[in-house]
Amino acid sequence: MPLLDWLNKDKAVKTAQQVQYRLLKPVAEHSVGDNPGNMLIQGDNLEALKSLLPLYAGKVKCIYIDPPYNTKSAFEHYDDNLEHSVWLSMMYPRLELLRELLSEDGSIWVSIDDNEAHYLKVVMDEVFGRANFITSVIWRKNYSPKSSAKHLSVDHDYLLLYAKNEDKWIPNLMPRTEKQDKAYKNPDNDPRGLWRPNNLAARNFYSRGTYPIICPSGRVIEGPPKGSYWRVSQEKFAEMNADGRIWWGKDGNNVPAPKIYLSEVKQGVVPQTLWNYDEVGHTQDAKREIVALFSEDVFGTPKPEKLMQRVLQIATNENDLVLDSFLGSGTTAAVAHKMNRRYIGIEMGDHAVTHCQPRLQKVIDGEQGGISKAVGWQGGGGFTFYRLGEPVFDEYGHIREGVGFAAFAQYLWFLETGAPLLAVPRSPFLGVHEGRGYYLLYNGILGDRRPQGGNVLTSQVLAGLPAFDGPKIIYGESSRIGAARLARENIHFRQIPYDIAKR
User: Fold this and answer.
1) What pTM did the predictor assign?
2) Largest CA distance in the chain
3) How far apart, in whole angstroms, are the C-alpha atoms of residue 499 and residue 350?
4) Helix 45-56 vs helix 9-18: angle between axes, to the nearest 10 degrees?
5) In a domain, 140, yes or no
6) Per the domain annotation, does 245 fall within a domain?
7) 200 and 256: one domain?
8) Measured distance CA(205)–CA(441) in Å, rounded
9) 85 and 107 both lie in a single domain
10) What pLDDT does residue 452 have?
């Protein structure tokens, strides 16, 4: 598979591994309501994504991001004038971490324009696998041409869509619209209800698809039109006609048309790749929504709520987890909240507090802009606001003071297993993975009776550990048990922090 190269790519490829794990610190004064499962995080999204891994690796059903487009324009909240290779180096490690967070049946959607779309496609092929590329959605974002355009008026953006695993990702069908159902009528009062006529002839060769048909009026149709064949055999046609499934026209003289009943078609429509502004909104809709919320247009390229609604309709169901690590004005989180999805939004800078948090507060209070009326939104719920704390390890590789057992256990479990620790135990025994039992002696989990207990593995501590019949990995500050007994007990001891820093 062809790979894209650029200045400092080697460094970008290693960046995600080198980012330190930081703790997430809840901020009570900015948190709202009673739903701690929804998260609004203020901080650099690369560091925030790394900190989410122990909690949410493989758990996010849908990721949507709207990164800076690198268009050589200036925005108040973003540097959208990055040199090309710098932009690619910024995106690569973030995409790597996002892939780790995505569930096996999940998908990632990335808004982008022509400036970087084709380069981003090649990078995402590398990170997610070319086989997992689903499609490029085209969003027609303008309803009128730009007369100021130097060459052509650019009226669309793209959404690059990838699955974590193409075989496991199943998109939802789109709801049928009144326009789509308008073609279904019932002029003959068929008891099966509304129907529309279908063409009996098709171009595909069918050996039993050439026979004469006699209309109720007596007109003889010698056969299908030249170059085509009847779709069904003569016997099947007679069966359908006897069952009232053929329409001959009001005078019984038309070319017969099989009926397609509305009650028998799929109750949804396969999603398409062309999204017009009359269905999912346009840039002016987005700006009006922002002005209604903040009394000013504070973001250069906001997305309309209807656009995000379409993404979540296709990619998620209620209670699924949605992540946006370039939260911007907060649209993704606002729409996810109104659609009863769980969400994580990450945004750096002061406007995480001045714009994202107030917007979600208004959603909880029941604001009626955007998609609120369409989904029957009346308010409710909540979220927890977080800021990034200090790294777990200091510059010397030692664990920082104040890092608790729960946070460190989650970090260590993810380091060992690559999966989140779903429930933090109240004992040193963290759980079993691939036949090995994992233990953590840390932060006084046994009462901090040092060295007889607490963080040091002694005979007394070993006797009091929850039993596990198999190989055991025990993390602790030190061990007072000899190598021979450790081997006899099938114990692999790992010293904190040295045996962590080495790996």
Assistant:
1) 0.82
2) 103
3) 38
4) 50
5) yes
6) yes
7) yes
8) 73
9) yes
10) 45
